[in-house]
Structures are given as structure tokens and as C-alpha cells.
Amino acid sequence: MAEPAGFATDFCRASIVQASIVSARNGPLRIAAMNWMQVEAQARRDDRCVLPLGCVEQHAYLSLATDAILAEKVANDAAEPLDIPVFPVLAYGMTPGFAAFPGTVSLRMSTYIAVMEDMLEGFYRAGFRRIVLVNGHGGNAPVMTFCTEWMGKRPDASVKLHNWWAGPRFQAAVKTVNPAASHASWMENFPWTRLDGVALPDAVKPPFNAALYQAANPAKKREILGDGNFHGRYQRSDEEMLSLWQVGVEETRAVMVEDWP
């Protein structure tokens, strides 16, 4: 019996797509390294996907993109053995309190919610139903309220927001190293967030007046913070940091696997 017209072409294309996906599994399954046919096949195989959420804001002597760098890396490291695709990081977030620091870019909440809705709808159209938001910036956390609202409209979808640095296992590990850990301190100082040629102070920064800071406008917040480190040392050993990183990766991976409704 003759094969239907176009059968060979369709079969070859499907085989190429499947082979490409298998090949991609040798490393992180990044959307940036996939085409639409591969994404279509992947969503049919597994309806999970990951979106890292970051921010571009002051981090004292560290990269302005620290939150984006860490969110994307921990998401990729966690998802790699699971063959779950990771979308490019949404690098900009909500950080109005740091607006007086040059280089900080803050989206309005209405803008952020609108972007998130469009992205969730895009994931949904692609066939993804279980979506993990790996968040690297505390100011983005209110977006989960919107995600809950969105799930009410898409009852067959599920969204998790994982603040990776605030996970109980990671925080417990941080406290065993040094409880004085905060924004732009040693806790965020990994080899991939440091800047070449930038020397860090060899000091312990004391805490600031939190009540005064909360009530202050952005210019006053900058005055209170000084260099931007909230408190604590500026750097720890790479051995300690890489050990902490592994805890964060494993905790993030568990979120991708466990407790789906």
C-alpha cells in the first residue's frame, strides 16, 4: 500500500524534532536553544516549564543584574536533569525603593502584571500547564496574587512562585555560615555576580534603622543605605558559596517535581 502524500516528509520532520530534543538533553533544556517544533513536542511530553524572574537594581559592589543572573542560573541548574524547558529570564522587575541608585530600572506594578499575563497566556497556548516561576527578587513576590487570579480563569493550569533565596533549606544553610546575611551582602556574592576589577570592602556593615528605611522615599533610602549593602560581610569563601548554591539548586529542583495539584 502506498504511503499518503507528505508522509515521508512529516515522518522525517518528526524524527528530526525528536532527535533534536534528545540531543538538547545533554545540557539544560533552554528555550533559547529550541525551535517551535521542539517546544510543541516537549509540551506534549511534559507540560511543565520554568520562567526565571529577576530585576535590575543596585547590589552595592555586585552586578546590577544580580537577581536576574542568580534566578536564571538556579533555574537552569535545577531543571537540567529533569528535562524541563527554561525560558529566558524576565530580567526587569519591581524595585521602586532603589530608584535613586543609577542603573536601577523599576517596572510599575500595572506593567509587570500585564507582562506576566501575556507570558502566562503564551505558555498556555504552547501547551504548558504547570508553570514554575523561579524568583530572584523579593519585590516581584506580589505577582503571585495575580497568578492565583489567572488560575481561576485557567483552571487546568497551575503556577508556583519559588523565591529561591528565601527557601527554608537555603536560609537554614545560610544561617549556619553567618546569620548576618542580607541584600547585596556576601549571601549574593557568587563567582557569577562579581565584577572584574571591583574590590570589595573587608568589613562587616552594621544594620540600619529598618523602621526609618521603610518610611523613607527613594532618595532618603539611598542616603540610609550608603553603598547598598543592607548589612553583614561583603564576601565569603568560594567553597562556602558553592556549597550554599548546591542547596539552593536542590531545593529549587524539588519545587519543580513535588506537590503539583
Write structural notes for this entry.
With 261 residues, this protein is mainly alpha-helical. The chain has a single domain (45-257), classed as Creatininase (Rossmann fold, 3-Layer(aba) Sandwich). 44% of the residues lie in helices and 8% in strands. It is built from 9 helices and 5 strands; from the N terminus they run ααβααβαβαβααβα. The protein has helices at 7-24, 36-45, 66-79, 109-126, 143-153, 168-177, 210-214, 218-225, 238-257, and strands at 48-53, 130-135, 158-163, 204-205, 232-233. A 3-stranded parallel sheet has the order 1-2-3, with helices on both faces. Helix 1 (7-24) packs across helix 2. The longest helix has 20 residues, at 238-257. Residues 7-24 have low confidence and may be disordered.
From the helix content, strand content and strand pairing, which structural class follows?
mainly alpha
Which term fits the overall shape? globular
Which stretches of 5+ consecutive residues score pLDDT under 50? 7-24
Q: Could you report the average pLDDT, rounded to the nearest whole number?
A: 92
The description of the largest β-sheet is:
3 strands, parallel
- Please tell me the total number of domains: 1
CATH architecture: 3-Layer(aba) Sandwich
- What is the spatial order of strands in the main beta sheet? 1-2-3
| Broad CATH class | Alpha Beta
Helix content: 40-55%
**The CATH fourth-level homologous superfamily:** Creatininase
The tally of beta strands, per DSSP, is: 5
